[in-house]
Amino acid sequence: MKSVREIIKEKPIIGWLLFIGTMIIVFLIGLLASSIVERRTEAVFAYSPELEFEDRIEPRNEEWGKYFPRQYQSLIETKDTSFRSKYNGSSMIDMLEEDPRLVVLWAGYGFSKDYNQSRGHYYAVEDLRNTLRTGAPIGDKESPMPNTCWTCKSPDVPRLIDELGSPEEFYKGSWEEHGDEIVNAIGCADCHDPKTMQLKITRPALLEAFDNMDKDINQVSHQQMRSLVCAQCHVEYYFNKDMVKGVPYLKFPWDNGMTVDAAEEYYDNMGFKDWTHPLSKAPMLKAQHPGYELYQTSVHAKRGVSCADCHMPYKSEGGQKFTDHHIQSPLNNVANSCQVCHRQDANELISDVYERQDKIIQNRDELEKQIVHAHVEAKKAWDLGATENQMNEILQHIRHAQWRWDYAAASHGGSFHAPVEVSRIISTGMTKIQEARIKLARVLADLGHNEPVPYPDISTKEKAQEFVGLEMEKLNEEKQEFLEKVVPQWIKKAEKRESSWDKES
Amino acid sequence: MKSVREIIKEKPIIGWLLFIGTMIIVFLIGLLASSIVERRTEAVFAYSPELEFEDRIEPRNEEWGKYFPRQYQSLIETKDTSFRSKYNGSSMIDMLEEDPRLVVLWAGYGFSKDYNQSRGHYYAVEDLRNTLRTGAPIGDKESPMPNTCWTCKSPDVPRLIDELGSPEEFYKGSWEEHGDEIVNAIGCADCHDPKTMQLKITRPALLEAFDNMDKDINQVSHQQMRSLVCAQCHVEYYFNKDMVKGVPYLKFPWDNGMTVDAAEEYYDNMGFKDWTHPLSKAPMLKAQHPGYELYQTSVHAKRGVSCADCHMPYKSEGGQKFTDHHIQSPLNNVANSCQVCHRQDANELISDVYERQDKIIQNRDELEKQIVHAHVEAKKAWDLGATENQMNEILQHIRHAQWRWDYAAASHGGSFHAPVEVSRIISTGMTKIQEARIKLARVLADLGHNEPVPYPDISTKEKAQEFVGLEMEKLNEEKQEFLEKVVPQWIKKAEKRESSWDKES
């Protein structure tokens, strides 16, 4: 048998073929290696400097932004509300105009005066000053809201809690008292530790809720933290006035569990109400925005997808991978959010979301109508001389039905996050309101009114606000005065304070 | 510069390295090629013989099975009902025992006598003979059901339609008339063309429904056919007695669309009812099993997944890939069905399904209770002398509420296939029944009964059947006699006929 060398000697072409083949393979291996290295580079996060804000919890996002320009640049993109223009050309959606039934459902409560779909984190402080719900505190006149209402609006909140020494010192007092302190837009210090840049829970209510459930929030994973920092605010909460006498203490109603049923039981057991409805006299609950709780029942949560995975997906710039801090609906950013897992066309994915929402809104609207009707029927019964004995059970049904409706309606994105749970909640609300209205029909018949109580003409926001007796002109005028006289002083004082910090350092 | 040959000459090791490297690479390429060829082999379907059943549409699955042993073997696995034992040790689930409310909802209609969860295709003929719904036709006594009821039960049906010359010839007459003709279990000839083995629509109603919608069923894809052969039977249908005088003609109510709302509108417009409820006197609709229609609203349908993809997934045996004809719940076969697309743990996938079902069943049960109560309240109103004028609108609400409940309840797997649509349907049913019950409260008050009408004690199937006035002992005895005297004769006659076919050939 011939040796390879002999073969090559006889037919040099074989030697060349071997050589060229090897060259090609080595070249391809080189390409692969390069690609692997490149991917590794992408996966590496930007260098994390250690910040030293020693004097205070730094509330100014632009200060953090000096060290984290990419995150900061994306954060201030929440200023852009142009995507809203598809609705009505405005960056705000007036929900009371969209759906005047809300005015009747929330009659006697701040939300019936004014309720806009929020514009996003960047505008949280400004929108809170602007809303009629915070009133027009000028001179000695107080806001109808307590300082607790600032809690979710700004990184000045953890700073102020720290400076005041305790949450109750922060919560107590009327809303205008912290007006000159809370000025910076939601941002870095709300969710990050400046020293380690780790995610951090800065709001006491979530820490206390975990304590109450005997859970250790320090034991959760980074992936869970990517939802929990959102859960500081995007949850159901209430103001408890018994924990610290006279202080509206911010608390989550999670002691019996995180479901709509568990929270209802919690509130019922403690005899809590947010307000008494002026038409039906029912002891009402206002659901806040139980986004985290409903998300917990979703298939996305079950698969370990965090809030940030869809609302703040990773992006790459200049070979660096970082979290996009332009917090927004994933529908504005399908490629980086949904399509990371779902290989469908973006339009198809968006239509999937709308389809779920449309199917659910049909019955949510229906439930709203039924609850409005029940309030009006209950008022008629009181007008005809109904007794508390006749009405008590009915008012409980109304309370529970509206609680369930509000829980389903107020949760941001609930109809997408957890469509089956939201549908379930709406259906249970329908059962409650049915009970109320059948009993109301009997009470009314008993009082001599055995016919339908007319549904009010609340076809516009104005008609609905007039129906519930709101003097909108006065409220708007007072607000205007407050915005012109008081707010500029707040801002001036805050600027002075912040520039004094810069001189210190 | 030295030539390669020179280099090799100087350092023979380089030549050897080149040679060995090439050998290894060629070996790996060989492995890859082999793997590709193997996969191709797996993908090739078994050789398809051309069957020649010239004399008739061959109804006997075992005859087809001689040529398609793998498909046949898997088909007759539907005989095994042992997976059911987790319920109550029996292969049958008596739905009336599970949920005695059904007896009241279907009072006056066959389903209140007897309703078992179907055991599967293998038992379709046997179960139809056994059910009390088909009665006990002995001698001159007729069944309460027409021959139309056989339509979905056996491949003897396309044979008989062919032999009789038209669908109406098959549909007309009383159920016992075809008793000796229809004996073979659902199988090959129901969905396949014996000559080409292509999927084939053998039932006239689906062909006619497509015609009515101006759609050409011959233009659909093979993938769509993998659902449409199921849609021959797993749909909502009714018996139209006007198309061919006196013949209960099988028809799908799809002229206005395939949704629950469209079918309701269709039935309302033609003034159709399945029966009159003996308690409320409401003109009722019985939903059949609108599985295909609800599946059409599902995300699986939107992604192009067919019925067969999950209920008859592909499997491999001896290097041959074929469709598993053991038609069953994908939950009994998660590895070959769900996990082809979903990379989650089987138990997690199963719990996802149960979670959706549990959330929906809570409100479906509630809706059932409300409809039962409405029937009872309406009866009370009639008993107290209510007029048709007072009751007509109420009865329409009851009709619509129960139609929607039944549509949601009767569809096999609907709560999984289309949880949001099923939830929507249940909620709309709740609105309808609320309307009915509020109006009933007023009518009853008007008639002097201004208090709740007691909910009946229907805690067991027996109590419920007694409540609606069914004489179950008599019905069971008659059925027993029928099964002992008549059915054996049917079977004997059928065997004689089939053995005469074998002699012919």
Q: Could you describe the 3D structure shown?
A:
The structure is a homodimer of 505-residue chains. The longest helix of chain A is centred in the last third of the chain and has 38 residues, at 346-383. Chain A has a two-stranded antiparallel ribbon with strand order 1-2. A two-stranded antiparallel ribbon of chain A has the order 3-4. In chain A, helix 18 (346-383) runs antiparallel to helix 19, helix 18 runs parallel beside helix 21 and helix 19 (388-410) packs antiparallel against helix 21 (419-446). The first copy, chain A, is globular. The first copy, chain A, has a domain at 4-47. The first copy, chain A, contains 24 helices and eight strands. With 505 residues, chain A is mostly helical. The mean pLDDT of chain A is 93. Chain A has helices spanning 4-10, 12-43, 61-65, 69-75, 85-88, 95-98, 101-105, 124-130, 156-164, 167-171, 188-191, 204-212, 222-231, 260-269, 291-296, 299-302, 307-311, 346-383, 388-410, 414-417, 419-446, 461-467, 472-485, 487-504; strands at residues 93-94, 116-117, 238-240, 249-251, 275-276, 283-284, 314-317, 320-323.
Note the topology.
Two copies of one chain form a homodimer.
Chain A: H1 4-10, H2 12-43, H3 61-65, H4 69-75, H5 85-88, E1 93-94, H6 95-98, H7 101-105, E2 116-117, H8 124-130, H9 156-164, H10 167-171, H11 188-191, H12 204-212, H13 222-231, E3 238-240, E4 249-251, H14 260-269, E5 275-276, E6 283-284, H15 291-296, H16 299-302, H17 307-311, E7 314-317, E8 320-323, H18 346-383, H19 388-410, H20 414-417, H21 419-446, H22 461-467, H23 472-485, H24 487-504
Antiparallel strand pairs in A: 1-2, 3-4, 5-6, 7-8
Helix pairs in contact in A: 1-2, 18-19, 18-21, 19-21
